[in-house]
Structure formats: C-alpha cells, structure tokens
Amino acid sequence: MFDTMTGTKLVGAVCGALLVFLLGGYFAGELYSMGGHHHPGEEEEQAYIIPVEETGGAAEEAAPEVPFEELWASADASAGEAVFRNCRSCHALEAGDNRVGPTLYDVVGRPVDSVEGYAYSGALEEVVDEWTPEHIFEFLHDPRGYAPGTKMTYAGLPSAEDRVNLIAWLETNPGG
C-alpha cells in the first residue's frame, strides 16, 4: 500500500510538475515580451510602425440597406427552415410548448406577449403590439436593442436575407 515515503514522493512529483508549468509560463511570457516588464493596464510603445496609405474609405462604406418590402417580396420560406436551427434550442413550434422562450406557433400576426403560461418581461409590450413581419424582422436583428429589458438573450441575426427567410418560413409553418 502507501507508506509515508511513497506519499511524500507523490506530493513532491505533483509540486514539481506544478513548478515546471508555472516557470514555463513565466519564461514564455518573458520571451514573448522580449524581457520587458509589462504590467496589466500599462500602455506599450510600438517598436515599429508600418505606414499604411489612406484609400479614401471606399472599402469601409457599408452596402446600402435594402428596404424591407423588397426583401420580403424575395423571401424564400424553404431557406428559412435552415435558419430556424438558431431558434430551436429555445423555442418550439407546437402550440403550448414553451421552453426558455415562448412557443413560435402561429407567431406572425399574433399579439405580443400573448402566449398562455409564459412569463414575459413586459419589455416588448412597450415597443410594439403585434408581431408583424416588419416587427419580427427588426427584433431579430438586435433583440436587446429593439426592446431593452427583453428576456431574449440571443445576440441577433445580422443577415437581412436570413431574417426574412425565417419569417416567411414561420408564417407558412405555424405548427412545424
């Protein structure tokens, strides 16, 4: 079994391994910073600055925003089914099946905060009354920005095409 000497060797081996890892991390940090003594929050001076010519900002300009009506007219409901994977972990399509979020059964055209048995935050009621395609479109882009205080923690769906496709799919598939 274990005697005192074996236990001492085991503790020594663990402490030795820990020391090797700590010293390795320290020396790697010293090599990376080239021996400088950098403290967290302290600014470092740039050793060499690479000059970059200004291009006039043409590459940084955002693409013009397409009006919702145009996007909605070209929405592809079948493509929206694939986008629903983002929603499936928190929402169901079956009536009365509330999960982390309320059921999305027949959501398009439904009054906001109207699902029985789901405890809403009340933030959406202050912004909108009904889930029209336009309101869903804006909400899905940035839920917390659209309705500050909402319980929805999803960061948002940046692609306008994905949003209209999802809404079109939800409209044609009320119960999954």
From TrEMBL:
InterPro entries in the cross-refs: Cyt_c-like_dom (IPR009056), Cyt_c-like_dom_sf (IPR036909), Cyt_c_1A/1B (IPR002327)
Per the record, the domain of life is Bacteria
> What does the record give as the organism's lineage?
Bacteria, Pseudomonadati, Pseudomonadota, Alphaproteobacteria, Rhodobacterales
Q: What keywords does the record list, in alphabetical order?
A: Electron transport, Heme, Iron, Metal-binding, Transport
Q: Which residues form the Cytochrome c domain?
A: 75-174
Query: From the UniProt record, which GO molecular function terms apply?
Result: electron transfer activity; heme binding; metal ion binding
Establish whether keyword ATP-binding is in the entry: no
Q: What is this protein called?
A: Cytochrome c
Metal-binding as UniProt keyword: yes
Q: Check the record and name the Gene3D superfamilies matching this protein.
A: Cytochrome c-like domain (1.10.760.10)
Q: Which Pfam families match?
A: Cytochrom_C
